[in-house]
Amino acid sequence: GAVVSQHPSWVICKSGTSVKIECRSLDFQATTMFWYRQFPKQSLMLMATSNEGSKATYEQGVEKDKFLINHASLTLSTLTVTSAHPEDSSFYICSQKGWAGEDTQYFGPGTRLTVL
Amino acid sequence: GENVEQHPSTLSVQEGDSAVIKCTYSDSASNYFPWYKQELGKRPQLIIDIRSNVGEKKDQRIAVTLNKTAKHFSLHITETQPEDSAVYFCASKRGGGGNKLTFGTGTQLKVEL
What we know:
The complex is a heterodimer. Chain A has strands at residues 4-7, 10-13, 19-25, 32-38, 45-51, 57-58, 67-73, 76-81, 90-98, 101-107, 111-115. Chain A is mainly beta. In chain A, strands 2, 4, 5, 6, 9, 10 and 11 form a 7-stranded mixed beta sheet that branches. In chain A, strands 1-3-8-7 form a 4-stranded antiparallel beta sheet, with no helix packed on it. In chain A, strand 4 and strand 5 (45-51) form a beta hairpin. Chain A is globular, with a radius of gyration of 13 Å. Chain B is mostly beta strands. In chain B, 0% of the residues lie in helices and 54% in strands. In chain B, a hairpin with a 6-residue loop joins strand 4 and strand 5 (45-51). The A-B interface holds A 1, 31-32, 34, 42-46, 49, 51, 91, 93, 97, 102-110, 112 and B 32, 34, 36, 41-46, 49, 51, 89, 93, 95-98, 100-106.
């Protein structure tokens, strides 16, 4: 598989502040990482595809200016939720492909964001 | 874009019985179909996957079948155990590292003693 870590595992912030979430690949150089959001009792919804050294590709309906993605190295992608509001409270999970091939995706442990 | 439907949304079985979860996809170009298990508050974990060049794949108590013509694929868990209780997601994808996974809506499986 692949070992993916995320930091922080949970964060509580005030409305209007920005929060940065890190996704690290510990054993694989990931040129592509994916960011998902999951609301309670719902499925995983892809937010954006993070590409190393270039701009992220955002899914329809996801505000690129609100959810800033930076993929500056082959082992680190960051998601910054800017001017967070209570409706942004969710479980954010990153994923990457692993040793099994380019189709297989392995997920990080997720970050629980609560905006007060 | 791709649409993946998953049924049932909840499934309750007795320990030792079998469980079957079904998914239907819309994109005929999809050729990779993984299944993930997610426990509450944790990451989705890949439990089995299948590619369109095979019709069935088995790994101990877990098996997946694929019907390309009907665009159906199913997860079969035999001899269920309490630790199988979780949410299961199917997904589909076109080949290629940059292509995205499209997930089903999930099935909450409960294995009762």
